Every structure is written in C-alpha cells, then in structure tokens.
Amino acid sequence: MRAISYRRTGGPEVLELLDLPVPDPGPGEVRVRLAFSGVNPTDWKSRSGATAGALGTDAQVPNQDGAGTVEAVGQGVAPAVVGQRVWVWEAAWQRRWGTAAEYTVVPARQAVLLGEGPSFELGAALGIPFLTAHRCLTLGEALPDRLGPGALAGRTVLVQGGAGAVGNAAIQLARWADATVVATVSSPHKAQLAAAAGASHVVDYRQQDVVTEVRKVAPKGVDVVVEVAPAANAAVDAQLLGPHAAVAVYANNGGDEVTLPVRPSMTPNAQWHFVLVYTEPERAKVIGVEDVNAAVLDGAVRVGEEAGLPLHVFPLAETAQAHRAVEEGAVGKVLVDVTA
Ligand SMILES: NC(=O)c1ccc[n+]([C@@H]2O[C@H](COP(=O)([O-])OP(=O)(O)OC[C@H]3O[C@@H](n4cnc5c(N)ncnc54)[C@H](OP(=O)(O)O)[C@@H]3O)[C@@H](O)[C@H]2O)c1
C-alpha cells in the first residue's frame, strides 16, 4: 500500500512516501481502507519528537484521525462490519498504523459506524477535536457527563479560540446540547467562522474587553470555559466563573506557565481541570465516542466554511505540506485525501 511514514523524528521532511505491506487485522481489530486522514497539531508534535515516546524500529505511519470503509476483521470481530463506512480515532496512539496510508488496522471500537449520510471528510475531522471538546464540556461537577439535545440547556459555555478546530467542535457540540455559547476570536474572519459554527455571541479579544462582553451575556458567570491558551487567559477566565464552574484546559498555546488569582476561583468553588484526550478516563472516552457519533447521526455536526471549519485537502504524497499547514496555524481543518 502507499503509506507516509517516518523512521526518525524531525521536521516535515522526515515524512516519506513508501510502499508497505497491507497490514492484517489481529484479534479484535479491523482493517479500514481509508478515504481521508485528518491532521491535528498532535500529529506534527509527535513527528517532531516534541511529544512522542521512543520510535520503534518499524516505520511509523502518522496521523490519528481518519475515515473509510471496513475491509477485513480479525478474530473475534463480527464479519457484519465488513463494508461499513466508519470514522477512526487514535489510530497512531502507541500503535504503528496511523491514517496517512491507504489502510490502517485499529481495535474494532476505534472504527465507529458512520452510516451512509455523513461524508468521509466529516468522519476524518471528528476524532481528536470532537473527543477533546466532548471531554471539556462534560468534566465539571456542575455539568452533565453526557451530551445530547437539552443536556446543556440553561448553561453558558465560553469557548476561547472559537475558530480553532477544537474550538469549532466545542461550539457545535455545545449548541447541539442547547447551551448558550460565547466564543472569542482574534479577527473579523474568525468571528464569522465562530458564528457559522453556532456561537450566539462572538467577542474579538484583540478589539473588545472579554470580561465586559461575556458579562453582558452571562451576568452570573459562565458554567464552563473551554480553554486553549491558559497562560494568556487565566486572569480573564477567573473573573468569569459562575457557581461551580470549570475551566477545561486542553492546550498550552501562548505559554507553558499559568499565574492564577486564587480568590476568584475559590468563591464560586470553581475547578481548573486539565485534559489530554489520549489519557482521559475510560468511561469518559466511551461516552465521548458514543455522544459524538450520536451528534453526527443527528445531523448536528458539519464541516466546511459554512460550518466555520474551512477544509484544506492535500493528496497523500503531500502529507508533509499538510503537517506544515497545521503547524503554521491553518484556519479550519486540514485533511489528506489518501486516494489522491
Ligand atoms: N489536550 C488534548 O487532548 C488536545 C486535543 C486537541 C488539541 N490539543 C491542542 O490544542 C491546541 C489547538 O488545537 P486545534 O487543533 O484546535 O488548533 P487550531 O485549529 O490551530 O486552533 C488554535 C486556536 O487557538 C486560538 N488561540 C491562540 N491563542 C489564543 C488566545 N490567547 N485566546 C483565544 N484563542 C487563542 C487561535 O485563535 P487566534 O489565532 O484567533 O488567537 C486558534 O483558533 C493545540 O496546541 C493542540 O496541540 C490538545
């Protein structure tokens, strides 16, 4: 099969297009013929060596997310899933077979039935961003542990960085769950994207005072902050916490060290809660996959400019450029068409 892979960590140039044997599914696994691979910051960070464990001796195929069709099953997996369209999550997490290839093999539960309606582009955009967003929206003690229509009714969600991939997912899932969603952005174009995703209120944090603007929508504070840049935003977040609110910190954009005013978080009994999607509790992962899939089957999740998530599609041989685009902050969703 045609597969992108790397044997040493480094810049995008370590990615090579190779001809590798088609992998066979082991017990409990499925083989998926991929259509699209989704690219996330985690993929270039792993490839660069910034976050990866030691590489094995085999070439590593990058990228966690993808979508395609189940082609074969290993021992113990019902053959009925052969031919089914699926989305794939965490294909390369502590495994060799990422999604930047014509085929991957994953444990059966990591290939989730997509049905006939949703596109493969949408399927490949789900895994990392939507599972992370789901975790952020459900981890507070004043939040439901499941999402679905009505689950966040009466609650206000602040999404810092609403035009990012995770920010977009948080807006879409929170709106599906009937929350009031406020998003911050840094430009008028990103404001349009956050509004297209479903944010009811958008604040340009370069032009407006975030605390003043969010207080207009949520005078008693918000229920959860989905936070991409805690070093930059902690003081603002702390002033916006409603009773028993949570700040879900899922990234360190803009700095690794956080300074927190203590008292404003004590008064509302707030939680500062950190998120890494790979290592979240098992029950949260199971629920996240189920709820994200339910949102997709409900027609509540979309991709493309009109959903606030412009698509940028690269052919398989240009996966290095796709990684570079994500590293350089492409706005929207970067995908690799593995058939091109
Ligand atoms: N913990 C996890 O499990 C997990 C999962 C997924 C992603 N991540 C991490 O999360 C980060 C974002 O991933 P992504 O795929 O969403 O990337 P992305 O699409 O590039 O989005 C990043 C967003 O962060 C926003 N941002 C940066 N500084 C900001 C600030 N001070 N205030 C508000 N927004 C700010 C940017 O908006 P502006 O340019 O407008 O500021 C941009 O929209 C990456 O570091 C990634 O590695 C972590």
Explain what this protein looks like in three dimensions.
This protein has helices at about 40-50, 120-125, 125-140, 165-175, 190-195, 210-215, 230-240, 265, 280-295, 320-325; strands spanning about 1-5, 15-20, 30-40, 65-75, 85-90, 105, 110-115, 155-160, 180-185, 200-205, 220-225, 240-250, 270-275, 310-315, 335. Helix 3 (about 125-140) packs across helix 4 and helix 3 crosses helix 9. It is globular. Strands 3, 4, 5, 6, 7, 14 and 15 form a seven-stranded mixed sheet that branches. Helix content is about 25%, strand content about 25%. It is α/β, with parallel strands linked by helices. It binds NADP nicotinamide-adenine-dinucleotide phosphate (NAP). NADP nicotinamide-adenine-dinucleotide phosphate (NAP) binds near residues 128, 165, 184 and 190.
